[in-house]
């Protein structure tokens, strides 16, 4: 009888034993990539890393129980992604690829809860697997262009049944902890929103009867702190001599031009013909991000040309912003 009992105990330990060991590893950085300042301010940007610093190998024969835990505590000396001018982009860390499971900085989050570890299959095989993390930026960040980054400290702490025998008996627990760091970065690029109404000269029987279009404005809301210039192209049909812009109707042309502010200096696209952000009539200087800078201009049809045949004359002028 004694021998039989010893044999049964040995069978219990041998037939069902399975080891699942975890360790803290070097993370894979999370990069949001290059995003325009406007997109950063108006749309939550997603990112992720497939390796948040916890790696496990092995297999369990049952799902995690209420006694099993995988805690992660995220801390940092910063409050978000810090940029070159001191601006900060806030973001939230999530335990899965939805916004259902946000992590709070400084508070332990249990990945064993809500089935996250089970869904990952972290303990479901012999190949090492790592815990992914997900990120989403906070709306409303009005920031300058540049590289934004933060280094997170992640303290992993776990306690779970690492071996299950016949009958579901736990044969041993894996209890350990460790700290790793994770770098998160995002590059903000310069951008603008542009409001530029069309120019309409109306109609007239002869070129001398057209009146100048005055009080026209172009509104630009460009990246916070950006110095830029604004250019207007020569249109689709510029004169090869004299450089005047021309509207076209069929094979006929009507020369006109666009001038800076209320003056007679032509607004062009090259060199000094462009306008600098410091030259804006409203809010001159570098870009504001959320506020508009307004550039005034006027336009006129040249009266020293022969009146062309009647028709609807059109041209397209490209506005470009250079940083």
Number of strands: 22
Structural class: mainly beta
Number of helices: 3
Report strand %: 35-45%
Radius of gyration: 33 Å
Low-pLDDT runs of 5+ residues are 1-18
InterPro entries: Spore_coat_component, Spore_coat_U/FanG
Pfam families: SCPU
Protein name: Spore coat U domain-containing protein
Keywords: Signal
Summarize this, please?
The protein is built from 3 helices and 22 strands.
What does this entry look like structurally?
- The chain is mainly beta and 323 residues long.
- The chain has two domains: 17-189, Immunoglobulin-like, CATH 2.60.40; 192-322, Fimbrial-type adhesion domain (Immunoglobulin-like).
- It is built from three helices and 22 strands.
- It has helices at residues 2-16, 37-42, 116-120, and strands at 20-24, 30-36, 46-49, 54-59, 69-75, 81-82, 88-89, 91-94, 102-103, 109-110, 124-130, 133-137, 146-164, 170-189, 192-195, 213-222, 229-232, 245-249, 252-260, 275-276, 293-301, 319-322.
- It has a five-stranded mixed beta sheet with strand order 2-14-13-5-10. Strands 15-16-21-19-18 form a five-stranded antiparallel beta sheet, with no helix packed on it. Strands 3-12-8-9 form a four-stranded antiparallel beta sheet, with no helix packed on it.
Question: Which SSEs are present, and which pair or pack?
Answer:
Blueprint: H1 2-16, E1 20-24, E2 30-36, H2 37-42, E3 46-49, E4 54-59, E5 69-75, E6 81-82, E7 88-89, E8 91-94, E9 102-103, E10 109-110, H3 116-120, E11 124-130, E12 133-137, E13 146-164, E14 170-189, E15 192-195, E16 213-222, E17 229-232, E18 245-249, E19 252-260, E20 275-276, E21 293-301, E22 319-322
Parallel strand pairs: 2-14
Antiparallel strand pairs: 1-4, 3-12, 4-11, 5-10, 5-13, 6-7, 8-9, 8-12, 13-14, 15-16, 16-21, 17-20, 17-22, 18-19, 19-21
């Amino acid at each position: 009888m004694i021998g039989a009992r010893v044999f049964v105990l040995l069978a219990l330990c041998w037939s069902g034993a399975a080891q699942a060991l975890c360790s803290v590893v070097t993370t894979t950085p999370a990069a949001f990539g290059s995003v325009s300042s406007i997109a950063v301010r108006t749309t939550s940007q997603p990112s992720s890393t497939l390796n948040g610093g916890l790696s496990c190998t092995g297999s369990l024969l049952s799902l995690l129980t209420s006694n099993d835990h995988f805690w992660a505590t995220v801390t940092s000396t910063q409050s978000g992604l810090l940029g070159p001018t001191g601006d900060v982009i806030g973001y939230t860390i999530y335990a899965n690829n939805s916004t259902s499971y946000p992590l709070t900085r400084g508070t332990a989050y249990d990945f064993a809860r809500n089935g996250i570890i089970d869904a990952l299959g972290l303990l479901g095989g012999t190949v090492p697997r790592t815990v992914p993390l997900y990120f989403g930026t906070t709306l409303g960040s009005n920031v300058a262009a540049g590289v934004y980054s933060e280094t997170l400290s992640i303290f992993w702490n776990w306690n779970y049944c690492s071996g299950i025998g016949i009958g579901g008996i736990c044969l041993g627990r894996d209890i350990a902890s460790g700290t790793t760091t994770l770098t998160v970065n995002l590059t903000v690029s310069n951008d603008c929103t542009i409001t530029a109404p069309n120019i309409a000269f109306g109609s007239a029987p002869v070129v001398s009867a057209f009146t100048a279009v005055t009080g026209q404005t172009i509104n630009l809301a460009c990246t916070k702190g950006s110095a830029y210039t604004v250019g207007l192209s020569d249109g689709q049909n510029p004169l090869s001599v004299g450089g005047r812009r021309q509207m076209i109707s069929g094979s006929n042309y009507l020369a006109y031009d666009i001038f800076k502010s209320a003056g007679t200096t032509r607004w062009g696209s090259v060199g000094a013909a462009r306008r600098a952000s410091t030259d804006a009539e409203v809010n001159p200087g570098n870009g504001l991000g959320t506020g508009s800078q307004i550039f005034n201009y006027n336009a006129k049809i040249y009266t020293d040309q022969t009146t062309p045949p009647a028709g609807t004359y059109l041209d397209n002028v490209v506005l470009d912003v250079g940083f």
